[in-house]
Amino acid sequence: MQNIFAEVFALLLAAVILVWLFKRVGLPAILAYLVTGILAGGHGIGWMTISYEMHFIAELGIVFLLFSLGLEFSVPRLMAMRHLVFGLGSLQVVLTTLLGTTLLWFLQFNWLEAFVIASLVALSSTAVVVKLLKESGSLNLRSGQLAIGVLLFQDIAVVPLLIAFPLIAQSDNQVLVGALSFALAKGALVCVFLWAVGKWLLPKIFNEVALVRTDELFVLTTIVVALCAGGLTYLFGLSMALGAFLAGMMLGESQYRHQLEAEIRPFRDILMGLFFVTVGMQLDVPYVIASFFYIILALVVLLVFKLLIIMCSAQLMGERKKDALATGILLWQMGEFGFVLVALASKHHLLDANIASFLIALGVFSMALTPYLIEQTERILSWFNIDKERFADDLQNSLGIKSLNDHVVILGYGRVGQTIARFLKPEAIPYVAIERNPILVQEAQTAGEPVLFGHAGQKSILESAGVEQARLLIITCSDFEQCQKLIDSVKQAAPNVKILVRMRDDIHLEALKQLGVTEVVPEALEASLMLVSHVLYMSGVPMRRILKRVSKERQNRYEYLHGFFAGDSADLSEQTTDRLEYLHAIALPESAYAANKTIAELALDKQKVVITALRRNGEEIDSPPIDTMLLVSDVLLLKGKPRRVERAEQYLLEGFV
């Protein structure tokens, strides 16, 4: 008993340390569990032995993994992505399996081993790819959408492979087709039964459980449902994982989907970790060391082979070369389900132990290399001679943008970005927005808005928006970590551009300033100023005094404000705004009094108002000379106290005050 306790304690301690270490260096936890198994197994330090009980508990991890995967598969979601899932996804899996089987057969593998290995290689890592896409904010990029569509079909393809491998091992060639047909018929029967249970019975059960409001009962019911579904398919001679997947899929459309996923996640992650530990314990380290050269060679072949297949498949589906290549870089590796199928194939003697170790090592190295390759996507694109400048011109021409110069770049076209654009447009200030929500971009472009689709962290997208020629760049997202990445990308593309950042508060003010941000606007401060304005007004304080205090607070806080926020100038007297500087842009229409007159003729200095800048034909003239002739469509930037600027505007437009 003491020996078992010591072995389990050492295993958990090693897992904790290695998971922490791998996460610190940006590698997935799956690799940490595999290394833990290598250390604990007979080819490592060797303090653990694989028992039947340990195998059974590890297989429960697969059951819960497939259950949580089923929760992600709602029928409406599959139908919405059917072009990518059943088009590109099926094309990639079929081509990789067929071509891989043929290639391995020429390399003297028998057809059974060739098919098993090729089907493993066809699968990619959902865990690694989705994690990296979320961290980089690339889920809504076209390459991210393509990758998710392919991964969804790959996950679906795991289910028939779980059925087929045991049947292939038990049947000869003559009865294999019949056995598969019989298995599919049984699977269809089980699917119909589980669909009926999930449609009518399970929602009622979970309704009753939810009414009790006991977390323990909800967790216990979730575990029992997953195990019962797995046990049902097992009784029919199919995989337990298949039943768990079907049960999860039936519950995927219920209102409890997110809660079920949250409850099952701890069990799934821990048991899946144990499963990968058992996979690592089966890795023959001396064989891997002896075959290290061949593993590296196979890694290169895997990269080139799978990259070409995914690229060609995506381009056959009408995707751009840039997106097709980026998708291939995302999906070239072997996945976690490959380890599951390696273990299943080894259990049924479909693969030799040395081949299984070779495939596990290949999967480990490919998953470890993936984050680095994704970071180098832009450089790899340049190796393939993709014309980024032409791509940028195409984007600009598609939006009707003739030239980008002295404009404002808005990163994010949500509510904040649209509000900024709405205020820039009347002042004749050109702008371009970058947004990664494809639906929002489509609607904005249809309305004629200059919005580019893409992730603002990519240098090519920033170049498309003309960030080097921009007068100002605005980051509308309020997440500090995401802002850091965007600022780094912007500084690489345009080191001298002014950057305005929106933040929830000013906790990261100094850090952002050190990164090169020009100004930070904290939402908490603005909300508090607006709140205190209402509080003072409803407490009887005169509005003039409130606006004066708020303006003073803003003036002290913002370095570049200079009294710009004067409040409602119609309610202010010069006495209350004698320390405020007000900037206001005026576009001269055809009927303007100031049109075809020089600045000297207008004598604005008598009204104590200064024209600080003149914008004409996209070019800005700072402090224009007094002999400058003003023309129709010129935009004047006036500076002065609020009342005087108002009178000057009336004079310039109408000729009287």
TrEMBL record:
It comes from Pseudoalteromonas citrea. Residues 570-654 form the RCK C-terminal domain. The chain crosses the membrane at residues 6-22, 29-50, 56-73, 85-108, 114-133, 145-169, 175-197, 217-247, 287-312, 324-343, 355-374. The keyword Transport applies. Pfam families: Na_H_Exchanger (PF00999), TrkA_C (PF02080), TrkA_N (PF02254). It comes from the Bacteria. The lineage of its organism: Bacteria, Pseudomonadati, Pseudomonadota, Gammaproteobacteria, Alteromonadales. GO terms for molecular function: antiporter activity; monoatomic cation transmembrane transporter activity. Residues 405-522 form the RCK N-terminal domain. SUPFAM superfamilies: NAD(P)-binding Rossmann-fold domains (SSF51735), TrkA C-terminal domain-like (SSF116726). One of its GO terms (cellular component) is endomembrane system. This is Potassium transporter. It is a multi-pass membrane protein. PROSITE patterns: RCK_C, RCK_N. It is found in: Endomembrane system. The keyword Protein biosynthesis does not apply. Keywords: Antiport, Ion transport, Membrane, Potassium, Potassium transport, Transmembrane, Transmembrane helix, Transport. One of its GO terms (biological process) is potassium ion transport.
